[in-house]
Amino acid sequence: MKNEQIEHEGVVTEVDSEFITVEISRSSACGACGAKSLCFGGDSSKGMIQIPQRGFILYEPGEKVRVIIEKSMGFKALWISYMIPLVILIVLLTIMSLLGASELIAGLSVIAGIALYYFIIWLVRDKIKNEFNFRIEKIK
């Protein structure tokens, strides 16, 4: 089975010893992509991606490149950023309702639960960052 990929063309904006920063513009092809929310926040038409320097290929600011990530990694990001918090919200609301808590207490517990989840994600951000492997290729 062919491993599907998500590809975007972009322009290198900055190169340092650790990262290559690429600005990606949303294209018309993004409208039908199921993972478009993973690449860009909200309705933003541009996104910045930092890709770790690997190998000996030199990139220059202003150079056109293609950024590639496996589609499975896009779905993993979807679960981490949206689906798990949604499950936490539903579970906490259900539990608090069954316990007879007021709407204020239920709402505050949901906010606290989701805040705790994102705090844990923040604590393990370096481990998560290492799991998402972006590749970069020069456009000829």
Task: Summarize the structure in words.
The structure is a single chain. Helices cover 43% and strands 26% of the residues. The chain is α+β, with helices and mostly antiparallel strands and 140 residues long. It has one domain (5-138). The protein has a five-stranded antiparallel sheet. Helix 2 packs antiparallel against helix 3. The protein is elongated. The protein starts with a strand and ends with a strand.
Kindly name the structural category: alpha+beta
**Uncertain runs:** none
| Sheet having the most strands | 5 strands, antiparallel
What is the helical fraction, as a range of percent?
Answer: 40-55%
Number of domains: 1
Cα shape: elongated
Mean pLDDT: 83
Cα Rg? 19 Å
Taking the alpha carbons of the first and last residues, their distance comes to: 28 Å
Secondary structure tally: strands: 5
Oligomerization:
single chain
Q: How do the strands of the widest beta sheet line up side by side?
A: 3-2-1-4-5
The topology string of helices and strands comes to EEHEEHHHE
Count of separate DSSP helical elements: 4
Which band does the percent of strand residues land in? 25-35%
How are the SSEs placed, and which strands pair?
Blueprint (H helix, E strand, L loop, with lengths): L4 E11 L3 E7 L10 H4 L6 E7 L11 E7 H28 L4 H21 L1 H7 L3 E4 L2
Antiparallel strand pairs: 1-2, 1-4, 2-3, 4-5
Provide a brief overview of the structure.
With 140 residues, this protein is α+β, with helices and mostly antiparallel strands. The chain is built from four helices and five strands; from the N terminus they run E-E-H-E-E-H-H-H-E.
